[in-house]
Amino acid sequence: MFDDLRDLYQEVIFDHNRNPRNFRVMKNPDREVEGFNPLCGDRLTLFLKFQGGEISDVSFQGSGCAISTASVSLMTEIVKGKTENEAEELFQQFHAMTTGKDDQIDLEAIGKLAVLAGVREYPARVKCATLAWHTLDAALKNEEKSISTE
Amino acid sequence: MTTFPIEKIREDFPILKEKIGNNPLVYLDNAATCQKPQAVIDSISHLYMHEYANVHRGVHTLSVKATDRYEGAREKVKNFINATSTKEIIFVKGTTEAINLIAQSFGKTNIKAGDEILITAMEHHSNIVPWQILCKETGAVLKVAPINLQGELIFAEFEHLISDKTKLVSVVHMSNALGTINPVKAIIAAAKAKNIAVLLDGAQAIPHISVDVQALDCDFYAFSGHKLYAPSGIGVLYGKQALLEAMPPYQSGGDMIRKVTFEATEYNGLPYKFEAGTPSIADVVGLGAAIDYLTAIGMDNIAAYEAELLDYATEKAKGIAALKIIGEAKDKGAILSFVLDKIHPHDIGTMLDSLGIAVRAGHHCAMPVMDFFEVPATARASFAIYNSKQEIDVLMNGIEQLIEVFG
Prior knowledge:
A: alpha+beta; 38% helix; 20% strand; B: alpha/beta; 4-stranded antiparallel sheet; 14 helices; 17 strands; globular
């Protein structure tokens, strides 16, 4: 059963859904942005701290589906220690991966995030995976207090 | 139950032969929209192939035929809900447009600053937002009668909220998110005692319950065709003739006029006053065919069969420890809304889809209901005349499997 879904629901995703990393409220964050997907009700708050031009700490709170929870959990792991520009570049890479623009993807940079590539086959679920990254993008650009996928 | 011709009915719906991947389709998203029987599909094809022209316009043969079909469908709707006259049957796009029509036409004429509009906490967004807009425009106040944890209207609170300022009660007949069937007779009686107009949102109720607008004594009743096995893009607003006569047009243009000069326009009579522009002719004809189809089966037989399906599904669902049913009203239609411990409804939806099972996962356009039950969303299986107990077994088996996979 669910054989067709193995590309979408990989074990890494189940693992991050059960035990999300950096799942905590941050005291005195430099930036705090809320992301919302009104289609499914997924909601997350992203907290960021910067030191010496790098993301020194990142955490999140919220509730969502397995894809969205795993995506934000994986994202917090990979962007910690990155500069704003590097994080932005990762966002572009992630976006290319989830929308199937293979020629633009640097597999080495993407790393573990590749487990989320399966969403491209499920148009209704792409936004679950990208919510975290759109929220990060808004936080890095310091544009808004709250962003929505719609 | 043994007399309900489920096998024959399934044969009538061609889409049920579709496969989703390698699995037979198990379509349980009927509260969102229903599939169409061959008779409805054929009625539309037949019109376009043999009888199509614009209605109420020409003297030529096809225009007369198309008009006969179109007005014949109005007669069928009138009989289906037991209205007194076809003048009380307004064709609209759907329930949403019907409610907006009432808000903009009846509302702007009869509701003023300080007046109150009373709804319930289980309304679909389409029975919330038009009133919020009207309140903003007029200075009226929107009042919301609360529900209990079973998802039932707290009737005493509802009665308490009726005041001398209440000008309209607008209530869902059957909740799309919870399945709750509201005590509409008591609601209407309470409103009538104070001479307050009542609009019923019948979008969910109409395919499941025999509706008699005269027996109900509601002032307005709104429903969509697409949930009644008819095409999308067509719906009905029923209104008592005297009220409709007194209301100004909602939209203006062709067909809704009697005489136009550049100085003044005389409006057409009912129901055409509210049907500006060329209507969705073929969809209206399809609605007529759907009503014929359902009438032949019998709405009471349908209600009895679906009640049995719901009981069966509810009993099976209660056997799954991680499953929590959202909406356990005593009086309930064939909707099973549920959440699973630690598994998000969207994951449920995707996983069941991979087994060929179509359910809805989301807030069902009823975010305040989700807030009340403190869930971001629910999964919802909603049943129709063509669903079988065997399909419910497939659903429950799928739910058990996905619980296992999520561990």
